Amino acid sequence: MPDNSIYTNGRGYLLPKIPIVVICYDGFDPSYLADAAIRRISPRVSDMAENGFYASAHSAMPSFTNPNNVSIVCGAPPRVHGISGNYWYDRATGKEVMMTDAGPLSAPTILAGLSQAGVKVAAVTAKDKLRKALAVGLAGEGLQGIAFSAEKASACTVAEHGISGEEAQAGQPVPDQYSPELSLFVLDAGLRLLRTGRAQVLYLSLSDFVQHAHAPGAPESDAFIRSVDRRVGALLDEGATVGIVADHGMTDLSLADGSPNILYLGDRLDARYGAGQTRVICPITDPFVRHHGALGGFVRVHILGDLDHDEVRDFVSRLPGVELALPREEMCRRFDQPMEREGDVAVIAGKGVALGTHKGAHALGELAGARLRSHGSVAERDVPFLVSQPLNATYRRKAATEQLHNYDIFDFVLNGTRSEGN
Ligand SMILES: [Zn+2]
Questions:
Q1: Domain locations in the chain as residue ranges
Q2: Which CATH architecture has domain 5-249+381-414?
Q3: Contact 86, 98 (CB under 8 A)
Q4: Ligand 1: distance of its center to the CA of 155 in Å?
Q5: Which residues are registered as beta bridge partners of 20?
Q6: Which fold has domain 262-374?
Q7: Is the pTM of this model over 0.85?
Q8: DSSP 84-106
Q9: How far is ligand 1, taken at its centre, from the CA of residue 208, in Å?
Q10: 219 Cα to the center of ligand 1, angstroms
Q11: Where residue 272 falls among pLDDT bands split at 50, 70, 90?
Q12: Backbone dihedral region of 413: left (phi > 0), alpha (psi from -120 to 50 degrees) or beta?
């Protein structure tokens, strides 16, 4: 490779000549973008679409936050890096393990590659669980980059995060983890790092707290979109090339009366095969369940008893509300999943349906009467893909002829906006 580029997970990336900012606009379903463009409440982002580049892209499956954030910074799907959900079931130990705690990613990140090539790189996330995964090879002992979360900004140390708590927080209050301000803090921190020359490449990952709670057009959603737009504008005004993608879309999974529309798959399997014969894992489960009750449109079924796997798959696939029930190998082949963490049967919900384990096992009270809005299925796979600059001819052709993924964003921002022959 020439020394003006790095090579990560099979792709080359040109080192930037101007500042680059990639934003993961968490849960930014295409419906928010369309509505915001029609009512002109997000002028800077709409302008990116009109005068730069806009397309609808696929997110990585399952359409959850962690697999997609990791895919974006690796430029590769879960098959390559191993993060295919928040939780997985370790057959050997019979335990549910949080994937991001299970050890380093099985692939390097673009952020680490750029940093190790001498580029000043910073990753700022809303939640700390994600920061840990993104910091691998970037920030920490012997490393030059910066990686911290809004959630734990005040506790940063130069040794672990590449930045002191004082500088990370910059006198701003650390927002509640269930607040729109958590995302705005991320963008403000990114802007400061850019303005002070601390970072030349920034990855800013927001939280989907607002989108889980509010549909497009709701006053709370409008206020959030306007606040994000002003900050995107400030980043653009600093001369940065900005790329925006979402990690997944968002669908209302409630009935007309406001109650959540849940297919309790664990209950159905127990009724059919007996308790303890199967185990349903909801990989959306995380320590912050308040906005979705650990309910989404994708679960994995592990068969523990002596059951015919094809029969179980067939039974699940015939349940109304199930869009697809796939054996492990087919799920991995069709949706680029890592084999070792896949269930015996992968189950994708139909649009508008949440998949759960057992009635009573989900903290529905945490929704506090709000409509359940969530993600995980193919219905939330389409996400906006925006670049603030027009693409060069090679990337215009690429966009026109290939299925775009959100994890192509670094490729498009770093390579696709450069004049050809560079
Ligand atoms: Zn998300």
A1: 5-249+381-414, 262-374
A2: 3-Layer(aba) Sandwich (3.40)
A3: yes
A4: 24
A5: 201, 241
A6: Gyrase A; domain 2 (3.30.1360)
A7: yes
A8: -SSEEEETTTTEEEEGGGSSS-S
A9: 5
A10: 21
A11: very high
A12: alpha
Distances (CA, A) of 312 to 20, 39, 175, 359: 48, 48, 45, 20
Fold matches, 5-249+381-414 and 262-374? no
64 Cα to the center of ligand 1, angstroms: 6
Distance, in Å, from the CA atom of 106 to the CA atom of 67, rounded to the nearest integer, reads 13
- 3-state SS class at 58: strand
Distance from Cα 388 to the centre of ligand 1, integer Å: 22
pLDDT of residue 308: 97
SS3 helix, strand, coil % of the chain, rounded to 5?
35, 20, 45
Task: Measure 63 CA to ligand 1 centroid, in angstroms.
Answer: 8
The protein residues having their C-beta less than 5 angstroms from ligand 1 (an ion) are: 26-27, 65, 208, 247
Amino acid at 223: A
First to last CA, the chain: 14
Per-residue pLDDT of 333-352, as tens digits, reads: 999 999 989 999 999 999 99
**Residue (of 291, 314, 289, 318) closest to 303 by Cα position:** 314
